[in-house]
Amino acid sequence: MDFALNDDQRAIQDAARAFADAELAPHSARWDEDKHFPTDVMKQAAEMGFCGIYTGEEHGGMSLGRVEAAVIFEELSRGDVATAAFISIHNMATWMIDRFGSDDLRGRFVPSLVTMEKIASYCLTEPGSGSDAAALRTTAVRDGDHYVLNGSKAFISGAGTSDVYVVMVRTGGEGPKGVSALVVEAGTPGLSFGAQERKMGWNAQPTAIVQFDDCRVPVANLLGEEGAGFRYAMAGLDGGRLNIAACSLGGALLALETAQEYVATRKQFGRPIGEFQALQFRLADMATDLEAARLMVLRGAWAIDTDHPEKTKWCAMAKRMATDACFQIADEALQLHGGYGYLKDYPLERIVRDLRVHRILEGTNEIMRVIIAREMARG
User: Which domains are delineated in the chain?
Assistant: First the structure.
């Protein structure tokens, strides 16, 4: 069993780190403060191939695996968590169109998504159905060669800015088999957006309600088959959970590195505080937890790449463990800074705020436990 990255993967890792160091990290604090959505920088990321990582080559994607995606997102999030997380969502939505869409749908949308000429959002959660996603109420009623959509989606990253929305809608009866997926373009009559949410973190990306009021969407924009949308959504989320877990790794890595530098120079009681064994032990635990989380993420990525029958369980495990552990690492790094960690002069408070939501989105960590327990019961 080889735990090392191969030469190609290391080259990808180096490229992602160089991009993050040059284009993300220097601006991260300002983007957070100004609530700026850096679409210009994300287009630069697309030029590196980072906006179509595991999308097929036919329409311009890199056709890489989920291991490579995890490596890339860890490095990007070390530069800026919120921007890396949005790029991960864009990748998920783009992959869903490329994986499940018709040739016509793929040809119309994927080329402009992998270049980020167009930006994509993923719309599953609703005001009345968060963890119980299969209970969604947004309807799509067939009317000739169109579907007429009514309902709303909540907490949608990119809402009001994105050009393309991959939307889960109810075309049939109750439960998951009544759910379909549609691609809705910005500017479609009946599509509107709520006010921007005032959030604890992830300030470098917009978040709002997406509203559909008699919104007419061509039947040609149906993703795959009617009634298969929930299955597509869950397939997207297996990878999406790993992406968010990888973004947690990058934020926690920056927090740990920052803490190591601080304790080496901060003096109390006549010597650097890093010389105190109690703090050395805390740093050792943080590093151990980070490495364990990374191994879980890479195992989940390997499971998707090999289509392992237990991939859903391992992805849920990785998401639960990594997002919990990485938040705790960031919080501990802040604690090691004392009062300085609470100030915006250091990146710790921003990392803590950004990583907190990772334990909620792409399925809460409580739902991850439900998935893990369900998969265990299946044997």
Answer: 7-114 (1.10.540.10), 120-226 (2.40.110.10), 230-378 (1.20.140.10)
